[in-house]
Design goal:
This protein is elongated. A hairpin with a 4-residue loop joins strand 4 and strand 5. It is 34% helix and 19% strand. It contains 11 helices and 14 strands. It folds into 2 domains: 59 residues, DNA polymerase, domain 1 (Orthogonal Bundle); 283 residues, TIM Barrel. The protein is α/β, with parallel strands linked by helices. The longest helix is centred in the middle third of the chain and has 16 residues. It binds iron/sulfur cluster (SF4).
């Protein structure tokens, strides 16, 4: 995706190979220069023109005149007590902050990336929603989250296995940059990261689901559901006023018919709200039409929110009720709560640099 800064310089990380070739040739450079630069950035993960050693000094200077390299500066890194969750705080070139979370299980590593600074959706249980919404991230800012963590893992001989768009922001409100980042990571000349290993999670933007259905049959889709009753869902997810649960269901049935992909449903268990017997039966009924996996996520407390986590026995009971209805379901262990990296807890703040997050 061609993006320029205020000086007219092009964001070189955010271009796919085709765009790079066309732009380079248009500027009088050689086609193979584009392949070389793409390899430095997206395969070798080098983000400094001066280090592109197979490009002549003259051409490197020319590149600097016409292109810029987006910045993502590492600020802090926190590791949960169980060592399975790591949270990274990054600063962007405009001093805004974002977070990414690395979740590891044995040698399997999943990166949860942010797609926006803040979020306009306003889910009531979510810490990100309490931040001021600032802007969408560019494709390059999404890619740099991946590259930073991939390099971090490579130092111990490991690699990312999956990427989930479940960090700060609603990915379908930044559709083009999200898809461009996936396409670039999928490029055989770059990371060659299989599309099957990406999951985009939405709060239920039906227009985004429709576009995704038409164009992205290989990328996985996850839905933050949390209730199948319109009144309840609207209470915690205002987006439900725009697209209610039946309209969402219709779009998802169409998605599955076209792509044959299994859908993941995220369901946060909130005490005295959405995890009674009747909720399990209604949920099972709603899901009957789908080939799906339901992730039950015990609510992760967010300061200032009234919601409570159900007891372990209540969580297990809800899980069992769904299991008995032949629903493919998992009950997640709560991970990363101690570093506020669990689902719904991301809230990049300046104060975190001083260890005074609230
Ligand atoms: S849960 Fe996701 S969509 Fe909802 S406010 Fe938080 S970041 Fe936005």
């Amino acid at each position: 995706m061609i993006k320029k800064d205020k000086d007219g310089k092009i964001d070189i990380i955010g271009m796919n190979l085709e765009e790079m070739v066309t732009t380079f040739v248009g500027l009088g450079l050689k086609k193979f220069n584009a392949t070389q630069v793409f390899d430095w950035i997206h395969n070798k993960m080098v983000f400094n023109f001066d280090e592109f050693s197979n490009i002549s000094k003259k051409d490197r200077e020319f590149l600097k005149e016409h292109f810029y390299i987006a910045q993502l500066t590492f600020k802090t890194h926190q590791i949960s007590d169980d060592k399975d969750t790591e949270k990274f705080l990054f600063e962007l070139s405009d001093n805004r902050l974002i977070e990414s979370v690395l979740i590891s299980h044995k040698n399997r590593h999943t990166l949860c990336v942010s797609s926006q600074i803040g979020c306009l959706i306003g889910c009531d249980f979510c810490a990100t929603a309490t931040m001021t919404y600032e802007r969408n991230l560019s494709a390059s800012e999404i890619l740099l989250q991946f590259y930073y963590v991939q390099k971090y893992l490579s130092e111990r001989g490991e690699r990312l296995g999956n990427v989930v768009y479940m960090g700060m922001g609603e990915p379908f409100l930044n559709y083009d940059s999200v898809i461009e980042s996936i396409n670039i990571l999928n490029s055989p000349k770059g990371q060659n990261f299989s599309k099957r290993n990406f999951t985009v999670s939405t709060s239920g933007i039906v227009t985004g689901i429709e576009k995704f259905t038409e164009n992205e049959s290989q990328v996985n889709l996850a839905i933050s559901l949390h209730s199948v009753r319109d009144d309840r869902r609207t209470e915690i997810m205002p987006i439900n006023k725009r697209w209610g649960v039946q309209e969402l269901k219709k779009a998802l049935i169409n998605y599955q018919k076209k792509t044959k992909n299994r859908i993941t449903f995220e369901y946060i268990l909130i005490d005295d709200f959405n995890c009674e017997y009747s909720d399990a039966f209604e949920l099972a009924d709603y899901l009957r039409s789908f080939s799906c996996l339901v992730n039950l996520i015990p609510y992760n407390p967010v300061k200032g929110k009234i919601y409570k986590t159900p007891s372990k026995s209540k969580q297990r009971e809800f899980y069992k009720l769904l299991k008995d209805k032949n629903i493919n379901v998992t009950l997640r262990e709560t991970k990363g709560q101690d570093i506020a990296a669990a689902c719904g807890q991301l809230k990049a703040k300046k104060e975190m640099e001083n260890g005074t997050e609230n």
